[in-house]
Write a structure and sequence with these properties.
The complex is a heterodimer of chains A (328) and B (337).
Chain A (H helix, E strand, L loop, with lengths): L7 E15 L5 E15 L3 E5 L6 H8 L7 E6 L2 E2 L3 H10 E4 L13 H11 L6 H14 L16 H13 L5 E5 L7 H18 L2 E5 L3 H7 L2 E6 L2 E7 H6 L4 H8 L6 H6 L30 H5 L5 E4 L2 E3 L4 H4 L1
Parallel strand pairs in A: 3-8, 3-9, 6-7, 7-8
Antiparallel strand pairs in A: 1-2, 1-4, 4-5, 9-10, 10-12, 11-12
Chain B lengths: L3 E12 L2 E13 L4 E5 L6 H9 L6 E10 L2 E2 L5 H7 L4 E4 L3 H4 L6 H12 L4 H14 L5 H4 L9 H13 L5 E5 L7 H18 L2 E6 L2 H7 L2 E6 L2 E7 H6 L4 H9 L38 H5 L5 E4 L2 E3 L2 H10 L4 H7 L1
The chains are: A alpha/beta (328), B alpha/beta (337).
C-alpha cells in the first residue's frame, strides 16, 4: 500500500541477542549474534537483509518474532511496545515466518491440510470444521496449489511446491508482516523465479510487509525496496535498494557487492573485484571497535578503539564507518 | 586430439522403481587449458556425467553405453586397475561440501600426504615438502603449522582450498569441480574462483566446472554445456550461450535470473516443475514446460544441430527458424526425422 509507506509498521531499537556458549566445563561466554541493531520497516515495504553466514541475519528475524527472547532492546509494532506474553501472542497473529529449508520445516507426518490448518487451530481462528476447510482451500489457492493436494503428505511434493505449502501456512493467520528467511535459496533457478513472483503477487494482493533475509544479492535487489547489510552482528549500511547497489558507502558493502558473480561474461571480464583478505572472525572473539576492521583496507587506530555510530549520511542512507568521507 | 572425448554417454541408475536414465546420450570434447562449464538444475545429470568420467558412481549406477577417451585411452570398461591410475593422477575432483569431504579424525597434513604418497613415487619426506608447497600455492598462511591441524580448525573457505590443494597435488590434467562454491559465502566464493582461475593459468590444466549458477559460469568458463533431464540442450562458447542462446530452456533460464533491470518488474519464470526421470516423455524432455512447444516437440526429440562453428543446440525452434529463413529445406528435415 504505497500511500502509507512512511508509517513504520515495525520498529526495532538497539536489539541484542547474546547466546551463552560453553567454553569450558563451568565457563560460558556470550556469543553476540546480534549486537545493537536498530531499524524500522514501513507498511507494505520489503526490507532486504543481507550478509554472510554467521552475521546474525537469521537471528534478527527470529528474535523479531520472539522465537528467541531478546537479550536487550525493544520491538515496537504499530506504535505499541511488545512486552508481555499476551503482546507476543497477539503479535504472532500478525507476524509469521517462512523458513529456508522446505524439507525440514514441514512435519512429514501431517497432511498438507493439517500443516496449513495448524496455525488456525493454535490461534482458534475458525469456528467450525467447514470454515477451517474452506479457509485452508482458500490459502492453497493463494499459493497455486490444487485442492486435491490437501490430503497428501509433504514428501510427495517437489521443493518449490513444499515452499508454497510453507508460505500458505505463514499466511494462515492473515498476517501483516512475514519474515522470509532465505525462502528461495534451496530452490532451482527456474523454480526460484516462480516463488519470487508469488511473493510479489501476495504482497500486492494482501498488502503484506516482508523482512526478506537472503544471501543471494541478485534476488534481494530484485525484491527489496530497502536493503540492510549486516556484518558480525552489527548493521553496517542501510539504504534503498538502488542506492546500495549503485553507490554503496561502507567498504564491506562495496566488496560484498563486487563479489557477486554477474551472469554476463563481458561484465564479468571487465569487473574489478574488491578482494577481501581472510575470513570472517569468529563471533566469539569479535574484534574490538568496528567488527570489519580486521579485513578492511582502510582501517585505522580509531576503528580498533571504538565502534562507529550508525549515522544518516544522506536522507534514508545510514552507514556505520568512521572513514566514510575519506573512503568515498 | 582433444584431451577428453566423451561420446554418446548413457549412465543409468537401476532402482526399485525402475531404470533412471540420469545421463542420456552426452557427447563433448575438452581441450587442454580450457574451462568447461556444465550448467543445469538438480537432477539434470551434470554431476553424474562427472562421476561417470571418474567412475565413482553409487552401486546402483552403471555406464550403460558410450565412450570416454582420456588422451586417446578408452576408460569405459577399462577396469578398476586402470581407473586407479587415472583418478588423482590424471583427473581429480573436488566436491561441493568441504565440511564432509575431509576426514575429521586425521590432520590436514596426514590427508594431503596420503594422497601424494598413494599417487606418486615420492617418499614421506618429499610428500611433506610437496604438501607444504601446495598449501602455500592455495594461499594458506603458515603452512607448516597448519599441517598439524585438524579440519575443524579451518573455516569453510580454507577447507575448500585444502581440497583444491589435495586435488592438484599430483598435477592432474583435468580438475573436475562439482559445485565447489555453492556452500560458501559470496566473498569467499570470489576468492576461490579467483584462485582456480590463476591456478588453471599457472598449471595449464583443464577444468570441468559443474554448477547451477550462471554467474559462476560467466566468471570462469570458456565453453558451456547446458543440460536438462540427462541430455545436452545446448553447447558452445560462453559468449554464444549468454548472448545468443538457441534453446528454449537456456533462454528461459536467462530470463528467470533477477538482474539490475528486473527490479520492480515481474520475473519470467519457466512454468511447471522439473521432469520425473522415471517417466520421460517421448519427445523433447523440456517440451512439457516449454512455452514455444510445437506438435513435433511432444513426439520427437530434436537432434543436435550446429548453429555455427562455436555453437550447437537441440531445439526444433531452430529448425522452424531455418525453414522460415530458407536455410533449411523442409523436406530434408522430415526425411531425416
Amino acid at each position: 500500500m504505497p500511500e502509507n509507506k512512511n508509517v513504520p509498521l515495525l520498529e526495532v531499537k538497539d536489539l541484542k541477542q547474546h547466546f551463552n556458549i560453553n567454553v569450558g566445563a563451568f565457563k560460558t561466554k556470550p556469543l553476540k549474534a546480534v549486537d545493537g541493531v536498530s531499524f524500522s520497516i514501513n507498511q507494505g515495504e520489503t526490507l532486504g537483509l543481507v550478509g554472510e553466514s554467521g552475521c546474525g541475519k537469521t537471528t534478527v528475524g527470529r528474535t523479531l518474532l520472539h522465537l528467541y527472547k531478546p537479550t536487550a532492546g525493544e520491538i515496537w509494532y504499530k506504535g505499541k511496545k511488545i512486552e508481555t506474553k499476551q503482546d507476543i501472542l497477539e503479535f504472532r497473529k500478525k507476524a509469521t515466518m517462512v523458513f529456508q529449508d522446505p524439507y525440514s520445516s514441514l512435519n512429514p507426518r501431517m497432511t498438507v491440510a493439517d500443516i496449513i490448518g495448524e496455525p488456525l487451530d493454535v490461534h482458534k481462528l475458525c469456528a467450525n470444521k467447514a470454515e477451517r476447510q474452506e479457509r485452508i482451500l482458500e490459502l492453497m489457492n493463494h499459493v497455486g496449489l490444487n485442492s486435491e493436494h490437501a490430503a497428501r503428505y509433504a514428501h510427495e511434493f517437489s521443493g518449490g511446491q513444499r515452499q508454497r505449502i510453507g508460505i500458505a501456512r505463514a499466511l494462515a493467520v492473515n498476517p501483516d508482516f512475514i519474515v522470509c528467511d532465505e525462502p528461495v535459496s534451496a530452490l532451482d533457478v527456474s523454480i526460484q523465479a516462480q516463488v519470487i513472483n508469488m511473493f510479489d503477487d501476495l504482497q500486492d494482493k494482501l498488502g503484506l510487509t516482508y523482512l526478506f533475509i537472503a544471501h543471494d544479492l541478485l534476488v534481494v535487489r530484485h525484491i527489496s525496496d530497502r536493503i540492510a547489510v549486516m556484518y558480525l552482528g552489527k548493521m553496517v549500511e542501510l539504504a534503498d535498494a538502488k542506492t546500495i547497489y549503485e553507490s554503496p558507502l561502507h567498504p564491506y558493502s562495496k566488496s560484498l557487492l563486487s563479489a557477486v558473480p554477474v551472469p554476463d561474461p563481458k561484465i564479468a571480464r571487465a569487473n574489478q573485484r574488491i578482494m577481501l583478505e581472510g575470513d570472517i572472525p569468529s563471533p566469539l572473539n569479535a574484534p574490538s571497535g568496528c567488527p570489519f576492521r580486521t579485513r578492511c583496507p582502510y582501517a585505522t587506530e580509531q576503528c580498533a578503539a571504538e565502534m562507529p555510530a550508525f549515522n544518516e549520511v544522506a536522507p534514508g542512507h545510514f552507514v556505520a564507518c568512521h572513514r566514510v568521507n575519506e573512503v568515498n | 586430439m582433444a584431451l577428453l572425448e566423451v561420446r554418446d554417454l548413457h549412465t543409468s541408475f537401476f532402482t526399485d522403481a525402475g531404470e533412471v536414465k540420469a545421463v542420456n546420450g552426452v557427447s563433448f570434447n575438452l581441450d587442454r587449458n580450457k574451462v568447461l562449464g556444465i550448467v543445469g538444475e538438480s537432477g539434470s545429470g551434470k554431476s553424474v556425467t562427472a562421476y561417470s568420467i571418474m567412475q565413482i558412481l553409487a552401486s546402483t549406477g552403471k555406464i550403460v553405453s558410450g565412450s570416454i577417451k582420456l588422451d586417446g585411452q578408452e576408460l569405459v570398461g577399462a577396469g578398476e586397475k586402470v581407473m586407479k591410475t587415472v583418478r588423482g593422477n590424471k583427473v581429480s575432483i573436488i566436491f561441493q561440501d568441504p565440511m564432509t569431504s575431509l576426514n575429521p579424525t586425521y590432520t590436514i597434513g596426514h590427508q594431503l600426504m596420503e594422497a601424494i604418497v598413494l599417487h606418486t613415487d615420492r617418499d614421506k619426506k618429499q610428500a611433506y615438502d610437496r604438501a607444504v608447497e601446495m598449501l602455500r600455492l592455495v594461499n594458506i598462511n603458515e603452512p607448516e603449522k597448519r599441517m598439524k591441524q585438524y579440519p575443524f580448525e579451518f573455516s569453510g573457505g580454507m577447507r575448500q582450498r585444502i581440497m583444491i590443494a589435495m586435488a592438484l597435488a599430483c598435477e592432474p590434467d583435468i580438475l573436475i569441480a562439482d559445485e565447489p562454491t555453492t556452500a560458501l559465502d559470496v566473498t569467499i566464493q570470489a576468492q576461490i574462483l579467483e584462485l582456480m582461475k590463476s591456478l588453471q593459468k599457472e598449471l595449464g590444466m583443464a577444468i570441468i566446472m559443474i554448477t547451477h549458477d550462471l554467474g559462476v559460469v560467466a566468471q570462469l568458463c570458456d565453453e558451456v554445456i547446458v543440460m536438462y533431464a540427462g541430455s545436452i540442450c545446448e553447447q558452445g562458447t560462453a559468449d554464444e550461450i549468454f548472448y545468443n542462446p538457441c534453446h528454449e530452456y537456456t533462454k528461459g533460464l536467462m530470463r528467470s535470473i533477477p538482474t539490475a533491470d528486473t527490479a520492480g518488474t515481474k520475473l519470467q519464470p519457466i512454468s511447471g516443475t522439473p521432469i520425473d526421470l522415471l517417466n520421460m516423455p517421448a519427445g523433447c524432455p523440456f517440451a512439457p514446460r516449454c512455452d514455444a512447444a510445437m506438435k513435433i516437440c511432444l513426439s520427437q526429440r530434436c537432434q543436435r544441430m550446429e548453429i555455427n562453428d562455436d555453437h550447437a543446440a537441440a531445439c526444433w525452434m531452430n529448425v522452424k527458424k531455418g525453414v522460415e529463413d530458407g536455410t533449411i529445406i523442409a523436406e530434408e528435415v522430415t526425411s531425416n526425422a
